[in-house]
Amino acid sequence: MSDLFRVEGLTKNFGGLAVSREISLAMPAGERLALIGPNGAGKTTFVNLVTGQLQPSAGRVVLNGEDVTGLGAVERVRKGLVRTFQVTRLFSDMTPEEHVTLTVLQRERKATRILSRFRGNAEVAGEVEGLLGTLGLLEVARRKVGEIAYGQQRLLEIAIALALRPKVLLLDEPAAGVPSSDTPRIEQALERLPPELAVLMIEHDMDLVFRFAKRVVVLAAGEIIFKGVPSEVAANSRVREAYLGNYANARSVA
Ligand SMILES: Nc1ncnc2c1ncn2[C@@H]1O[C@H](COP(=O)(O)OP(=O)(O)OP(=O)(O)O)[C@@H](O)[C@H]1O
């Protein structure tokens, strides 16, 4: 019962198609969990069910012992369930500093129309600087988002999510679309996430998954087919068959 977060029997049907089938898993504070699986396995649907973008056909989402299944996405964010998206949703004419400042003000329910008034607010500015620093974005804090590297844009999404003070953070493919030369930057930023935060990451980059995750959950056809530590996952025959075969063979993982 010490789990910070858990889902029980989470099920979603689209018409006759079962996209999530009785998914149950729990995360303690400080968790670093990777959710992997082939395209169409239902990973994004799962995140949508957790964060309230979708309502389940059956099952529960429980945060800090509270059943939040009936709550909408905004209420869940306020309770600490926060996500990033597979594709960036930023304003190209605004700077990282402005994005994060607006998010902090929104969280505090301050009027965001008067952003300029808060620029000089030391408390807000200090928090924003800390968040941008955690994600390695201080050097581009005042550049327009449209002018910074795509990898930095993905990191800014995480900074924005952190500005909402999550307890559970769901990262939907943080390295998707990022050139491989930039993935170390993403990896370093992920290492600096607050230790008490529970993080669930969907990712196809297996090197990143195996370096980041303490535990791995494998989804195939809407169902969990494996839960375990990274060293076990590559050796599991069901997982190799469903997903990892090519990766494991390429790396000679026994
Ligand atoms: N709104 C919807 N209506 C009907 N089917 C849907 C809907 N959303 C998703 N699906 C189907 O559910 C299945 C799971 O999709 P989902 O996007 O969750 O998979 P995924 O594991 O995130 O895939 P990817 O790795 O490609 O992002 C797919 O077959 C998809 O076509």
Automatic annotation (TrEMBL):
Residues 5-246 form the ABC transporter domain. It comes from the Bacteria. Pfam families: ABC_tran, BCA_ABC_TP_C. GO terms for molecular function: ATP binding; ATP hydrolysis activity. Keywords: ATP-binding, Nucleotide-binding, Transport. The keyword GTP-binding does not apply. InterPro entries: AAA+_ATPase, ABC_AA/LPS_Transport, ABC_transporter-like_ATP-bd, ABC_transporter-like_CS, BCA_ABC_TP_C, P-loop_NTPase. This is ABC transporter ATP-binding protein. The lineage of its organism: Bacteria, Pseudomonadati, Pseudomonadota, Alphaproteobacteria, Hyphomicrobiales.
